[in-house]
Specification:
By secondary structure, the chain is mainly alpha-helical. The chain is built from seven helices and two strands.
Length: about 120
Amino acid sequence: MKKIDTPWAGMGQQIWFNIGRIRRIEGMLHKPISEVAQEMSGLNITNLVVLMQVGFSHNGLKSEQYYEDAIQKAIDSGTALAEIYQDVLKALVGSGVLGDALYYQIFPEELTGDAEKN
């Protein structure tokens, strides 16, 4: 599990996912996480908001409106929506649930000799 820094969300904020969080995402969106990840290749604000709700849940449960406002504030402050997407997707891939190939594609610095053999 990787914790991804999100400077656009405020000082010291990080987003991360584990199995329990991913199960919550699937329940909230009523679809498997692989489908959610595929849908993130385009602009899907609904998925983004839910991923943020769950990925930042260590800060307490906040409403969808809270994260909609957070996205708007980040955009208004000069952060590209693509940067927000990238950080959220990195955290999702960093959970490991989307497979080793994608994990090492996003985090090549972690590809050790043993991992490369596998």
